């Protein structure tokens, strides 16, 4: 009696951004109750191929043009006193850029319950039971970023006149305060 059993199982998967893969890898192959002088093969082939390709391209151009002016006032040619008092010029700029983040989670914690057996085989029989597992994981994470931050920030105060008055001439200019904050957080890869 010739009994051939071939079992083939294949698992394959492709994971992308923030994807979890946990292949189940349980398999058994057995030759059970075979006849005499028989040739029996029980085979399990597991082929787990995981290919993860994550690519991000980011191009950001931040152009900031801010102008704050105070002053440039005149108190001229008055019969009495001439007085100019200008306020403060304040500029507060915040520019933030973030992007290109890859997360991949490949969980190899699946079952690895493999079994190959020959039981109750007949006399002079040739029995082979095999389990073969081939696991391949290929992960490519690529980030390309170009961030261009350009700022033209101008805060002016003053340039006041109090001229040619018959009384006193007085000018008082305010303060300038400029705060600029630029932050860039790009190109992070996380692989669990």
| Total number of strands | 10
- Series of secondary-structure elements, N-terminal to C-terminal: EEEEEEEEEE
Low-confidence region ranges: 1-21
Q: How far is the N terminus from the C terminus?
A: 51 Å
User: How much strand?
Assistant: over 45%
Query: What's the structural domain tally?
Result: 1
The best one-word shape is rod-shaped
Mean pLDDT: 80
In terms of structural class, how would the helical and strand content be classed? Answer: mainly beta
Query: Main sheet: which strands, in order across?
Result: 1-4-8
Helix content: under 10%
Could you state the oligomeric state of the chains shown?
single chain
State the major sheet.
Answer: 3 strands, parallel
Number of helices: 0
Rg estimate, integer Å: 39 Å
What report would you give on this structure?
The protein is mainly β. It has one domain. It is 0% helix and 67% strand. The protein has no helices and 10 strands. It has strands at residues 4-13, 20-21, 27-32, 39-69, 82-85, 89-106, 114-119, 126-156, 169-172, 176-191. The strands form 4 sheets. It has a 3-stranded parallel beta sheet, with no helix packed on it. The protein has a 3-stranded parallel beta sheet with strand order 2-6-10, with no helix packed on it. Mean pLDDT is 80; it is low at 1-21.
